[in-house]
UniProtKB/TrEMBL annotation, chain A:
Lineage of source species: Bacteria, Pseudomonadati, Pseudomonadota, Alphaproteobacteria, Hyphomicrobiales
Main location (coarse class): membrane
Gene Ontology cellular-component annotations: plasma membrane
Membrane topology: Multi-pass membrane protein
Protein name in UniProt: Binding-protein-dependent transport systems inner membrane component
Automatic annotation (TrEMBL), chain C:
TM region(s), chain numbering: 42-64, 112-138, 158-185, 231-254, 275-298
GO biological process terms on file: transmembrane transport
Topology with respect to the bilayer: Multi-pass membrane protein
SUPFAM superfamilies per record: MetI-like (SSF161098)
Similarity comment text for this entry: Belongs to the binding-protein-dependent transport system permease family.
Protein name, as recorded: Binding-protein-dependent transport system inner membrane protein
Entry keyword set: Cell membrane, Membrane, Transmembrane, Transmembrane helix, Transport
GO cellular component terms listed in the entry, alphabetical order: plasma membrane
Signal sequence region: none
Organism whose genome encodes this protein: Nitratireductor indicus C115
Keyword Transmembrane helix: yes
Keyword Cell membrane attached: yes
Domain ABC transmembrane type-1, chain residue ranges per copy: 110-299
Family matches, as Pfam families: BPD_transp_1, OppC_N
């Protein structure tokens, strides 16, 4: 278990470093970052001044290590647009996005897992059909459009929920549903498939032969085994969801990190964009790392070698 | 003592399929007393396992099951509620399955799973259940039982897992134990140990045992009674002596020809085999199911099969009476 | 528990997460049995039919409408569609805020979505399949490298990276297609890797190795035909994915640029007026939904039809 955890941690660190290299390279994709920052009407001297100011005249690897070591200290540089330290900007916005992510994944799990279990227990029943319908719809619906439809229905026509802002819990209802619905179909499918597989397992028959009740068979013996891959998927989806928060936050004008990303991309604020890409990647890396550890712990074949 | 603990009459199991109804078990019956061992023998697909699952009330709801009589310890199993069946299962009747590798839940320790069997039926504390688990692990020949309790199934070998399964089945001292091919998945050396263990424990606890197998060598060693199943029917049944010393049904004779006999079968010699395949049981079926593979079949076999009896228990389904028309070269007296 | 999990070695440490992604593809879709019982392959038939219609619409858009999707008519702005009062029979689906015919924009928009979906899936399919097949076939160090790259790719937030790159390079149809193509190869690689691993040690592959067939020959003639079904299923799913992503990028204003008739862009433009004219977002949104639904049903149907347990 410890060996596994250490190797997994080493992998997480390597992936993080590689992602940081890629996101730092983005700055140079346009060719000359100095002229990109200076804007279209800048003179050659201005561009030169910016180049020296930001150190773009140094070799790439020097700039990268410099940036990386600052980033490790929590210093992501100055935002070109907001003229503030990037780290402060992000720290300010992160709690909103985290809250949204947690609400979203909770919504997805709370709907998908019971639905998946119910669908597996009674295949071809009404609930199985409903699960199928919701999952097919969810996979085909563009989430930004789903958000707009919700605004039209619940804000404009019914006046129940505020269309934008982040001042009260009501602001989080629609974004949670939109974000959660994005992750729901995959989790539901996997829960259902996993439960179907596990319910056919020999040890389920053993449990019944012992005289265990259906409820006990379902929740103690079956779900415990079916949930293992669902934990991994939930972590992966959580990472994807936070990355996708940029869309949801911009629809509902929730001022989180995703909204910040949208603003800074639209304004060519590269240091902020770099930092955000790294941070969103880091979320994914941490979630999947933790879920692998959780899985290893849930699966005695790994826990006790 | 003399009333049978289990009494089955005309049990049928139908499986609805897209192509029609499959009559997987067709009117079988037997009686079993405490302390007796009944071996149900037959090829795979002959309905042996379905029969044992039906007695346990573990058949999938999709299958249709009927019986004229299905009585266990004076209880009519046909009209027990699911809750009452649960109360019986694991307590008064228990089952051991074929696949020890997959029959234990990988997520829980051996101790958890053994104790669960006890706690479900006895008003007992964790400590008592634990003590019982240790006791039974000792009984099934597992050393260092205490430390095994905290192990997971993947840490045990197949033979050990099957011992655990046996211990689990015996946690509540059942009156009836059904073992469905308990040794098929194990190494040959382990097979013998497990069988001896089962048969010793059965005698010690005075249980009735149904052993489902396709291995006649096993049957010869531990059976009191034998039921030979073919294509969903019991084609011949009787005491072990009757079946082995005086087999009546051509199928039983064929099966007996398939076992190597020490001293008689020369190395390299071909063992007997029964040519042909089991007929499809989908749709209505008339006459003898074995006729397509039988070397003494007559035209009348496609219309009817008489049930013939001899003595107290010996019964077979064939138009041929004792000895008549039987092919030569049947090896008899294989009982060691 | 599905799959055997061992805790030793780097390979296992890396493969765990990506196996989750593969699991999604391999498991039959919910209700697969149910649908087959009720409709036969209804979903598959529906998917093929609708997709064919949309492809025909895209090809023959100029024949289906006399309007040009770019021509503005400021005198005829915001005409409502045919089911609302005050509509103009000349503009069946009304006009947008610049007086452009909405039906024409919708029909020509199908070209954008299909082009994005097909070409992006082609690019990512080539990259992902090459990586996945190499990893699955050679195993060992090659597998470690590919698995690592997949992990890196999965860690990067797609929407964010795509938006940033498109913003730096400037939004255009070509840029969006290439960026999406370079980003969406992960699932191809994951699924091809595990599919190839499943067939690489089969008898006929070993036989081909034994008689001295070259690696490209074994891969192309022995392995690829056996993993093709999975490849096609992933391709349909990634096509849908690319279409949805393009729409999202264009919606955020950082994808295909105006005045191109992209459905995502139409929704974005309609958003300003959705308070009063919700049909402006309803029409392109429903079109997008139907297209993606059709592609997904096609993919689901193909997966169910080609799943090993369903082969005669």
């Amino acid at each position: 278990m410890l060996a596994f955890a250490l190797k997994r941690l080493g992998l997480a660190v390597l992936v993080t470093l590689t992602v940081s290299l890629v996101s730092f390279s983005l700055l140079f994709m346009s060719g000359d970052p100095a002229s990109a920052i200076a804007g279209e009407n800048a003179s050659a001297t201005d561009i030169e001044a910016i180049r020296t100011l930001y150190g773009f005249d140094r070799p790439f690897l020097v700039q990268y290590t410099d940036w990386l070591f600052s980033a490790l200290r929590g210093d992501f540089g100055q935002s070109y647009y907001f003229k503030l330290p990037v780290a402060d900007l992000i720290a300010d916005r992160l709690s909103t996005t985290m809250l949204l992510g947690i609400c979203g994944i909770s919504f997805a799990l709370l709907t998908a897992v019971p639905l998946g279990v119910a669908a597996a227990v009674r295949p071809n029943s009404f609930i199985d059909r409903l699960a199928l319908f919701l999952s097919v719809m969810g996979q085909a619906m563009p989430s930004f459009w789903f958000g707009l439809v919700l605004i039209v229905i619940f804000s404009i026509n019914l006046g129940l929920l505020p269309p934008s802002g982040s001042s009260s819990w009501k602001n989080f209802v629609m974004p949670t549903v939109v974000l959660g619905y994005y992750a729901m179909p995959a989790i539901m499918r996997l829960t259902r498939a996993g439960m179907l597989e596990v319910l056919n397992a020999d040890y389920i028959r053993t449990a019944r032969a012992k005289g265990a009740s259906e409820w006990r068979v379902m929740f103690k013996h079956a779900l415990r085994n079916a949930v293992v891959p669902v934990v991994s998927l939930a972590a992966v989806q959580m990472g994807f969801m936070l990355g996708g928060s940029i869309v949801v936050e911009s629809i509902f004008a929730l001022h989180g990190a995703g909204y910040l990303a949208w603003e800074s991309i639209a304004r060519n604020d590269l240091p902020t964009v770099q930092a955000l890409i790294l941070i969103f990647s880091l979320f994914y890396i941490v979630f999947t790392f933790l879920s692998d550890l959780a899985n290893a712990w849930l699966d005695p074949r790994i826990r006790v070698g | 003592m003399d009333d049978p603990i289990l009494s089955v009459r005309h049990l049928t199991i139908d499986i609805p399929l897209a192509q029609g109804t499959m009559h997987a078990v067709r009117g079988i019956g037997f009686d079993l007393k405490r302390g007796e061992t009944l071996c149900i023998v037959g090829e795979s697909g002959s309905g042996k396992s379905l029969t044992s699952l039906a007695i346990m009330g573990l058949l999938s709801k999709k299958l249709r099951q009927k019986a004229e009589k299905l009585q266990f310890a004076g209880l009519d199993l046909r009209n027990q509620t699911p809750r009452m069946m649960r109360g019986l299962r694991g307590d008064r009747m228990a089952m051991i399955f074929q696949e020890p590798m997959t029959s234990l839940n990988p997520a829980y320790t051996i101790g958890d799973q053994l104790e669960e069997a006890y706690l479900l039926h006895r008003k007992a504390g964790k400590a008592e259940a634990r003590a019982r688990a240790v006791e039974l692990l000792g009984k099934v020949g597992i050393t260092a039982a205490e430390s095994r309790l905290s192990q997971y199934p993947h840490q045990l070998s197949g033979g050990l897992r099957q011992r655990v399964m046996i211990a689990m089945a015996l946690m509540c001292e059942p009156e009836l134990i059904i073992a469905d091919e308990p040794t098929t998945a194990l190494d040959v050396t382990i097979q013998a140990q497990i069988l001896r263990l089962l048969s010793d424990l059965q005698r010690e606890m005075n249980m009735a045992m149904i052993l489902v197998t396709h291995d006649l060598g096993i049957v010869a060693r531990i059976a009191d009674k034998v039921a030979v199943m073919y294509a969903g029917e019991v084609v011949e049944q009787g005491t072990a002596a009757e079946i082995f010393d005086n087999p009546r049904h051509p199928y039983t004779r064929g099966l007996l020809r398939c076992i190597p006999v020490p001293g008689k079968t020369k190395p390299g010699e071909r063992l007997g085999s029964i040519p042909g395949i089991v007929p499809s049981l989908v749709g209505n079926f008339q006459g003898c199911a074995f006729r397509g593979r039988c070397d003494v079949a007559e035209p009348i076999c496609s219309e009817m099969v008489p049930v013939q009896e001899e003595g107290q228990e010996h019964m077979w389904r064939c138009i041929h009476a004792a000895g008549e028309g039987a092919s030569e070269g049947v090896s008899q007296g294989v009982r060691p | 528990m599905p799959g055997s999990i061992r805790a030793s070695g780097w390979g296992e440490a890396m493969a765990r997460t990506i196996e989750t992604v593969a699991e999604e593809i391999r498991s039959p879709s919910p209700g697969a049995m149910l649908r087959r019982r009720i409709f036969g392959h209804y979903g598959l038939v529906f998917g093929i039919a609708v997709l064919t219609i949309i492809v025909l619409i895209a090809l023959f858009a100029p024949l289906l409408t006399s309007h040009d999707p770019y021509t503005q008519d400021l005198m005829a702005r915001m005409k409502p569609p045919f089911w609302m009062a005050g509509h103009d029979p000349d503009h069946l689906l009304g006009t947008d805020h610049l007086g452009r015919d909405y039906l024409a924009r919708l029909l020509y928009g199908a070209r954008i979505s299909l082009a994005i979906g097909a070409v992006a899936a082609l690019i990512s399919g080539l990259i992902g399949t090459a990586m996945g097949v190499a990893a699955g076939y050679f195993g060992g160090k090659v597998d470690l490298v590919v698995t690592f790259l997949i992990n890196v790719r999965l860690a990067m937030p797609v929407v964010l990276v795509a938006l940033a790159v498109v913003a730096i390079l400037g939004g255009s149809l070509e840029v969006v297609i290439v960026v999406l193509g370079l980003l969406l190869w992960d699932r191809f690689a994951v699924v091809m890797r595990s599919s190839v691993m499943q067939v690489r040690d089969l008898e006929y592959v070993n036989a081909a190795k034994a008689i001295g067939c070259s690696v490209p020959r074994i891969v192309l003639s022995e392995i690829m035909p056996n993993v093709l079904n999975n490849l096609i299923v992933v391709a349909t799913l990634e096509m849908a994915h690319a279409i949805l992503l393009e729409a999202a990028l264009s919606f955020l204003g950082l994808g295909v640029q105006p005045p191109t008739p992209s459905w995502g862009l139409m929704i974005s433009e309609g958003k300003q007026m959705m308070l009063f004219e919700p049909w402006l977002i309803a029409i392109p949104g429903v079109a997008l939904f139907i297209l993606v639904l059709a592609i997904n049903l096609l993919g689901d149907g193909l997966r169910d039809v080609t799943a090993p347990e369903n082969r005669g």
